[in-house]
Amino acid sequence: MAYRANPFLERMSERTTSDQEFVHMFSPKILERLREDCLEGAIHVFRSPPGGGKTTILRAFTPNALRAFWHAKPTQAESYRQLVERGVLDEQQGPQLLGVFLSCAAGYADLPPGAADAGEGIFRALLDCRVVLRTLRSLAELIEVSSADQLDDVRLEYSSLAQELKAIPLGSTVGEMVAWAEQREREIYNQLDSIVGHSAATMPSQSRFEAVLWLQTVRFLYNGRQVAPKRLLMIDDIQKLRKSQRSMLVDELVVLRPAIPVWLASRSIAFADEFLSQGVREGRDIRDYPLEELWGGRSSQQFVTFAQNILDRRFALQTAVPGGSFGQYLSDGLGAKELDEAYPQAVAKLREDARRHKNSMRYSEWFAQADRQPPIINSEVLYDLFVTRILVARDATSRQLSLELTPLTAGELEDRDSSAVKGAAEIFANYELRVPYFFGMERLCAMATSNVEELLSLAAALYEGMKAKQVLRRQAQPQLLPREQERRLREAATRKRDFIPRSHTEGTRAQRLLDSVGQFCRERTFLINAPYAPGVTGVRLSNSEIQKLMRVGKTTEPSTALLSRVLFECVAENLLVTRESSPSTNREGGTVFYLNRTLCAQYGLPLQYGGWQETSVQKLVEWTEVGLQPTRSLALEVVQ
Q1: First-to-last CA distance in the chain?
Q2: Which residue from 8, 24, 102 is spatially nearest to 65, judged by alpha carbons?
Q3: For residues 84 and 91, is the Cβ–Cβ distance under 8 A?
Q4: Counting beta carbons within 10 angstroms of the beta carbon of residue 124, is it exposed (0 to 12), middle (13 to 18) or buried (19 or more)?
Q5: Concatenated DSSP letters for 569-627?
Q6: Is pLDDT of 358 > 50?
Q7: Is the pLDDT of residue 300 over 80?
Q8: Which segment of 271-285, 356-370, 573-587 scores lowest on mean pLDDT?
Q9: Among the four residues 235, 286, 538, 548, which has the most C-beta atoms within 10 Å?
């Protein structure tokens, strides 16, 4: 199937993508990561920053998408098999689950501007009638008729539990229920403009949400046969609701203990889990799915496998570059030209260090070994030069003065080496010699920060490079060399950083804070003894400092309240990634705020987690207001 100019720019959640295209781009790895109990009766909350894949998961269970999966069995066998195993599809009869998709993106948070008690009743009433309408329209899609008006042959029956319904009638035909829901919605909107002049008694008022109970008790009979025996209610974008509406919705749904699965999707919320209200137990009453953990959490390899599947599916839809896998067009090793240019410079820097220690025999054997010309120059021998410099600097700053004259042996050099030191050597080579660092499939996936939309944006930049090389060299494979990959990825990182003021409420302050954190991390990463190897990519607030942000109120300093808003937005928008930090014998627990991994490329920082430095609310306030004032010129130097 020929595709648009760049298949990585298309977002699967967008309705401009047809269901057939959606199915071809959808990765079965997503279904593999969903828990076995995700279709059991309970409240299931899917959370992630923007672009994390929430809406994509929900769309996969809508009627048209399920029917497309069923028809695409020959080409999408893996997704088809998993849906059959979960009982969502039947091999002969097709979709068995009626997925009802509703978005809170508009029309709820502004209901109404006053009269709180009436507002709750209106919110419940409006949501109920829209769920009923969406259910009937989804039913039309499931049995492949053009609209709910053509469902005259469908009969509605109810179980005995439906007698408990007070606000929703038990109509026996689709036409009756559509007429009721549309009339109910008109009544609500007719009264909203004049709500101040109405008493609570004249406004639509309900004491609970009933649409879930209606959906789980109704049976649909089409031509004498029951259809859609399984149900799934999906409510997207609940972060768009007011906090009181969101809390009320979750609380009341939990109290109802629905017999059908109810999926709620929302952007991540910083500092507190607002979905889990008092008395609600995660795991029993509500099941939480942070998508960054679903895609692998800290296990980068799991996300790499998932990401490769997504990228290969997109890559298969284009025709500009010869077929194959996306990764095969990304060179994952430094070329001879890059090594030949960098190696002599690295040797020269090592010799400068050796001259500083010329009066000491302690490192003579280390320097001599590093100075020997290797038979083959590869990336390993290049990085070994930086490893030697780091370990010499560490030993020189840490050892006590002594009369020991015995040189350190080559074996001791190897013993002190580690993966963290090698990681520091790689980023040092990138900083000092411009040796490419941000290239290859694994680092592309790391830069995505477990976020599908970021992955696709970065892949789109690389794909443009592949196309350009294909035009220039029609006879050669348009494989992107490491330096070409890094240039395009860092350009994408710069665009992300530059776009922050235009795409976030506190964007200018957020950009200033992130730039300050990036500069602060660079100053502590590029110390020649690499004390925080492979580098610093985040800052930590202790629990005491976090409490200062949590106590935002009328007596709070305006600057602290502002910082709280900026941090909240940065975490919610995936610009900062939080990780809990456990207490130790000499410090209390806290929260580490790591830079988004794409922004790490913007600031020239390594992509590993783990390296962080303690900070304070006061310092972050200063960074937010005026930025970090440089304390020294950035150069590789020793910290005492």
Answers
A1: 61
A2: 24
A3: yes
A4: buried
A5: HHHHTTSEEEEEE--BTTB--EEEEEEPHHHHHHTT--S-S--EEE--HHHHHHHHHH-
A6: yes
A7: no
A8: 271-285
A9: 538
As to burial, measured by CB atoms within 10 angstroms (0-12 exposed, 13-18 middle, 19+ buried), residue 612 is buried
> Cα(573)–Cα(578) distance, rounded to whole angstroms?
12
Residue 122 confidence (pLDDT): 83
Place of tokens 């999906």: 234
**Structure-token pair, residue 550:** 């949590």
Question: In the structure encoding, which two tokens stand for residue 234, read together?
Answer: 């999906």
Write 153-159 long-range contacts (CB < 8 A, 24+).
Answer: 153/222, 153/223, 154/220, 154/221, 154/222, 154/227, 155/220, 155/221, 155/222, 156/218, 156/219, 156/220, 156/221, 157/218, 157/219, 157/221, 158/217, 158/218, 158/219, 159/217, 159/219
Query: Would you say how long the chain is, in residues?
Result: 640
Average pLDDT of the chain, as a whole number: 85
* pTM as predicted: 0.85
Question: Is 98 in a helix, a strand, or coil?
Answer: strand
Burial class (CB in 10 A: 0-12, 13-18, 19+), 538: buried
Q: What is the DSSP letter of 7?
A: G
Written as one string, the DSSP assignment of 516-556 is HHHHHHHHHH-BTT-TTTT---EEEEEHHHHHHHHT-STTS
Tokens coding 488: 């395009």
CA 180 to chain centre: 40
Mean pLDDT value of segment 599-627: 95
C-beta atoms surrounding 29 within 10 Å: 19
pLDDT category of residue 203 using cuts at 50, 70 and 90: low
Angle CA 450–519–532, to nearest 5: 70
Highest mean pLDDT among 242-256, 354-368, 441-455, 483-497: 483-497
Query: Angle at the Cα of 573 (from 570 to 578), degrees rounded to 5?
Result: 60
Tell me the average pLDDT across 214-226: 93
Coil, helix or strand at residue 146: coil
Q: Is 410 helix (H, G, I), strand (E, B) or coil?
A: helix
How high is the pLDDT of residue 223? 85
> Higher pLDDT residue, 242 or 455?
455
- Cα–Cα distance list, 316 to 2, 9, 281 (Å): 9, 14, 44
